[in-house]
Specification:
The strands form 2 sheets. A 6-stranded antiparallel β-sheet has the order 1-2-3-10-5-8, with no helix packed on it. A 4-stranded antiparallel β-sheet has the order 4-9-6-7, with no helix packed on it. The chain contains no helices and 10 strands. The protein has strands spanning 12-13, 21-26, 36-42, 46-47, 56-63, 65-70, 73-78, 82-85, 91-95, 101-108. It is globular, with a radius of gyration of 14 Å. The chain has 121 residues and is an all-beta fold.
């Protein structure tokens, strides 16, 4: 009989070259899920290029703080706060602070590199 659940105890570690840790628990890289759920740790002074994803992204800050530049509006979230970013919105994620930021990210539909549309730095 097939199981009607999946326990994830070996998340896929997404290779990065910017010092950010990405542990994908569910998503296209781990178990071909229609939603992505990942634990991330952004190092101090980290940033990504602007992007305009074709998916919604929900972020919950566990510790530290994270900066969001959403269509030119800068928002800073602290531990215990969360945000939902609509799809097709131009955004830049960063951690310009002196401490790590640990957070959970949920993307629907699942994160896909060909649907994130990152700009050149």
């Amino acid at each position: 009989m097939a199981k009607n659940y999946h326990i994830q105890n070996k998340p896929f570690i997404v290779p990065t070259n910017d010092g950010k840790l990405i542990e994908e628990h569910f998503g296209l890289a781990s178990i071909n899920s229609p939603v992505s759920i990942a634990r991330m740790v952004a190092p101090p002074k980290w940033s990504e290029p602007f992007q305009t994803p074709e998916f919604e992204e929900y972020t919950y800050i566990i510790r530290g703080k994270k900066q969001f530049n959403i269509d030119g509006e800068v928002i800073i979230l602290n531990a215990g706060e969360s945000i939902k970013i609509e799809k097709n919105v131009r955004i830049q994620y960063s951690n310009p602070f002196d401490e790590e930021c640990e957070y959970i990210s949920v993307c629907f539909p699942a994160f896909s590199i060909d649907k994130v549309h990152r700009e050149e730095k």
